[in-house]
Design a protein that fits this description.
about 170 residues; alpha+beta; single chain; about 45% strand; about 35% helix
Length: about 170
C-alpha cells in the first residue's frame, strides 16, 4: 500500500501533467517537498544549476554539472509521429557556448515540484517544464534527467525531454 506522502507526490505529478496537457505551457515556481532527503535536494539543485547555466549562456557552468560523454534526447511529434533528436552533452555545450554574448533570453523551469528519486548513487529528476525564449513561451513538456554521483557530486548523465511547441 502506498504511503500518504507517495500518494500526495503522485497527485502533484498528475496535476502538473494536467496543467501542461490542458493549459499548454503553464507557469509555476518549482517547489521542493519538505520531506525530501539531502540527496534529493542536491540532485534537483544539479538540474537547476544546468537551467541557470543555460539562462546565463555559460557553457563552463553547464559542463560542471554534466557527464560530458552523456546524451540528450528530445522527442517531439509531427504528422508522421514521434521525432527523436539526439545530441551529446559535448554538442549541447558547443551550442550553448555559441550563444554566449547573444541577447537571446533562455529560461527553463519546472512547472510545480518534479519527482526526484534516489537509490544510492543514481537519481532521476522527472517533471513538467516550460522553456521561454526572450520572455515568450517557446515549448514545454516533460524533462527526465538521470544523474549519477561522482567524487565531485551529482552529475547529469542522460537527459530526455518531450517538446510541445507553443
Amino acid at each position: 500500500m502506498k504511503s500518504d506522502r507517495s500518494i500526495s507526490r503522485l497527485r502533484r505529478t498528475i496535476a502538473g501533467l494536467l496543467l501542461v496537457g490542458v493549459g499548454g505551457c503553464a507557469s509555476s515556481a518549482t517547489t521542493m517537498d519538505a520531506a525530501w532527503s539531502v540527496d534529493q535536494r542536491e540532485a534537483l539543485a544539479t538540474v537547476q544549476a544546468l537551467f541557470d547555466a543555460m539562462a546565463a549562456h555559460d557553457a563552463a557552468a553547464a559542463e560542471r554539472v554534466l557527464l560530458v560523454d552523456g546524451t540528450l534526447y528530445s522527442v517531439s511529434r509531427d504528422a508522421n509521429g514521434p521525432r527523436v533528436e539526439r545530441a551529446t552533452w559535448r554538442e549541447f555545450l558547443a551550442s550553448l557556448a555559441a550563444e554566449s554574448g547573444k541577447a537571446r533570453g533562455f529560461h527553463e523551469q519546472f512547472v510545480g515540484a518534479p519527482t526526484v528519486l534516489v537509490d544510492g548513487d543514481v537519481a532521476v529528476v522527472w517533471g513538467a517544464y516550460r522553456f521561454d525564449l526572450d520572455g515568450v513561451p517557446h515549448h514545454c513538456g516533460i524533462d527526465a534527467m538521470t544523474l549519477v554521483r561522482t567524487v565531485d557530486g551529482w552529475r547529469i548523465a542522460v537527459g530526455a525531454d518531450t517538446r510541445v511547441s507553443r
